[in-house]
Structure formats: C-alpha cells, structure tokens
Design goal:
A hairpin with a 4-residue loop joins strand 10 and strand 11. The chain has a 12-stranded mixed sheet with strand order 7-8-9-6-5-4-3-2-1-10-11-12. The chain contains 9 helices and 12 strands. The radius of gyration is 19 Å and the shape is globular.
C-alpha cells in the first residue's frame, strides 16, 4: 500500500523535510556557536549518503516533496554533491534546497547546482565587513557576497539571504538591508533570534521582536504577500518598486506553529518533530537496508502522530535543543 500524505493529529500536513547532514560548523556566530563547534565526547558519525537516500525515499513516499540540506554547515561535508545527487534522484522530490554560511560558495556553487540543488539560502547577518566579522567570527563578507554572485551565475532557481536581527548588534542596518533587497532580484529573510539551551543571556540582551521589523516594513509601503504552496515559515512582503522580497521568520508570533509543514532529520538519524522539542526519535536502525523501508515508513507515521500543537518558547522552554546547529536550525 502506498501512503501519499503525512498528517498529525492537529490537522497539519507535512511536505517539507529539513535534513541536517552535519552538526559541524566552521563559523562562530554570536547567537549559535559563539565559542565555535565543540566536538561531543561521544561523537556519532553523520548519516552516509546511502542512509540519507533511504530516509528521503521514505519521507517522499509520505508526500514530502521539498528537502532542504542544512547543518551545521553542510559545506563541511566533502561528499555533499554525492548526498545532493542521492536526494535529488529520489522519486517524488521536486525541490532540493540548501542553507549555507557561504564558505567557499564561490568555488562550489556550480557543482552544487549541477548535483541537483535548485534553491539556496545564504547567511548574511550584516552588510558591514567589520560587523559581519564580529557576528560570525570570520572576516569573510566579501567572500560570501562573491558566493552570492556565483550562485546567480550557476543558475539557482531561488537565492535567499538569511539575516538574524539582534537588538543593539545589527538592527540599525535594517533600512540599508531593505534598500539592498529593493535593488536586487533576491529574497532576504529576517529571522527573529531564538532562545536555545546555550544562549539565554544573549537572547535576553538582543532579542528583537519581529513585530518591530514588520512595523518598519509597512511604514515603508511593503505589503504582505499570499503564502506559496510548500513554503517555509516565513511571512513574505513585497513592494511595487522593489526587485526583491522580504520574509519574516517570527517564531514568537501568535499561531506560528499552526501552519507548520516541516519535519527535521538530524545528522545522526533522529527524527525531530519540532526544532524546540524534547528529543528525537531514532530512525537510523531502519536506514541500513532497503528491505526495512515499510518498517521505516510505519515508524515515521507513528512518530509524527505525537507532534505537539506548538513549541513552548513563550514559557521560556526551548526543549532539548542546545544550539541551532545541532539539528539544522
């Protein structure tokens, strides 16, 4: 019997898989890994390409048609093109995306596009080189922007920039960022900084409500756009005279979880029903043989039925997530 869709008990349908291929990141972003990546004492090897292929095949059977490769920084995997080809070749996968910090993107963009990745999100938390270095721990803004240009040349269908806005850090750049998007044919996603297990002090000092960003957008004549099929959590805005679009990812907004359409698979093969859940459900034992496909599908269906109606961030509970790199942000 071929299952064609995956729902939870709250009526939400899942079409979007965020697939972490590594928890390793080589940047030291203030809001995520300010001290850099720390290898766990009992590190588990990340999923192999064949395991990833079996996982995606099971999710695709259940109707998930959009896959995003995340990390950590997925570019730290030397076999990333092999992984991309394995995912892009799964029947039912119609869109393969990636989120990257832009490291070595200028020299890798074409290979990633040729491997089947059609959409790319690139983290750019500041347009000022010194501030970019202060936020990320690396003086690489020029390199990252060269990567954006290379992505254009490579022919990605969609190019989006991600910026985590922080009060007292980069929020004064909001007008310049809006002007940048207005002049370029790309999308910029403003992401509300989120509390995790390792950053409560940073969150308390620098959290900027998404409503403050939306107020500035609307004051400048930007208007909310209809939600597109299979879209992620961003609320999109457009302007009649702007070439680009702006998205707002606002996890603290009311009813943020009501339209959730995504599941997460961590680099060690655990299914996470929520970025801020209490833990993951092990799938790796069912990823070793093609013959376990039906059992894997059944496990995914059973686990998804237990998805909670919403996260508990408003209660100050960020679940078991130590930092955003741990299960793909």
């Amino acid at each position: 019997m071929m299952a064609t869709s995956l729902h939870d008990t709250h009526g939400r349908r899942f079409e979007y898989l965020r697939l972490s291929v590594t928890d390793v990141c080589n940047f030291r972003c203030q809001y995520c890994l300010p001290n850099g990546y720390q290898k766990p004492a009992k590190a588990v090897p990340p999923l192999r390409p064949d395991e990833i292929g079996r996982a995606v095949t099971a999710f695709a059977r259940l109707g998930l048609w959009k896959v995003r490769l995340t990390g950590g920084e997925p570019g730290t995997r030397t076999d990333l093109p092999e992984i991309a080809r394995a995912v892009a070749g799964v029947p039912g996968v119609r869109r393969l995306a990636i989120t990257t910090n832009g490291w070595k993107l200028a020299e890798r963009a074409q290979a990633w596009r040729d491997a089947g990745i059609s959409a790319i999100n690139i983290s750019v938390d500041s347009l000022d080189p010194a501030r970019f270095a202060a936020i990320t721990g690396h003086d690489r803004l020029g390199e990252v922007l060269a990567g954006v240009a290379a992505a254009r040349t490579a022919g990605f269908d969609t190019i989006k920039l991600n910026a985590v806005l922080m009060r007292g850090v980069n929020d004064d750049e909001l007008p310049a960022m809006i002007d940048f998007v207005a002049a370029h044919d790309l999308s910029l996603r403003f992401i509300e900084v989120m509390r995790t297990g390792s950053n409560p002090d940073h969150f308390a000092r620098h959290h900027l409500p998404a409503s403050a960003v939306i107020s500035q957008l609307e004051a400048r004549g930007w208007q909310r756009l209809p939600r597109q099929m299979g879209a992620g959590p961003a609320i999109e805005y457009g302007h009649a005279s702007a070439r680009g679009r702006i998205g707002i990812i606002a996890p603290y907004s009311r009813d943020f979880c009501a339209s959730c359409n995504r599941l997460r698979l961590s680099a060690d093969g655990r299914l996470h029903l929520c970025l801020f859940g209490d833990g993951g459900i092990a799938l790796r034992p069912w990823l070793q043989r093609d013959e376990d496909h039906d059992a894997l599908v059944a496990r995914i269906i059973a686990a998804t039925a237990t998805k909670a109606p919403a996260h508990r961030l408003h209660a100050g509970n960020s679940g078991a997530t130590p930092h955003l790199a741990s299960i793909g942000g």
